[in-house]
Amino acid sequence: MCLATVYKENDNTVIMENTARIDVDGDFVIVEDIVGEKTRIQGRIKWVDLAASKVMLVCD
User: Fold this and answer.
1) Most buried in the list 12, 27, 39, 41, measured by CB within 10 Å?
2) CA distance 5 to 60
3) In sequence order, which residues have a C-beta less than 8 Å from that of residue 8 and are 6 or more positions away?
4) Do 47 and 33 contact (CB within 8 A), yes or no?
5) DSSP of 23-53, one letter per residue?
6) Domain ranges of the chain
């Protein structure tokens, strides 16, 4: 299983660790962790590094 850490670009803060799923809904990104907890963030995906298990979001 490959889980990722999602970061906010402007200050590199961690939005969510152990992220199992990422959905895009218009101007929002919904991240869900391994236990099913979800966070909805206005923004977009800037990049995904699967080898490092990192996701960077640009948040509005």
Assistant:
1) 41
2) 19
3) 14, 15, 41, 43, 57, 59
4) no
5) EEETTEEEEEETTS-EEEEEEEEEEEETTTT
6) 4-59
List the Cα angle 26/28/34 in 5-degree steps. 125
pTM of the entire predicted model: 0.92
Would you state the structure tokens that stand for residue 58, as one six-digit string? 């640009």
Q: For the chain, 60 residues long, give each residue's pLDDT as a single digit of tens.
A: 679 999 999 999 999 999 999 999 999 999 999 999 999 999 999 999 999 999 999 997
Q: Which of 17, 13, 38 is nearest to 28 (CA)?
A: 38
DSSP SS3 for 4 = strand
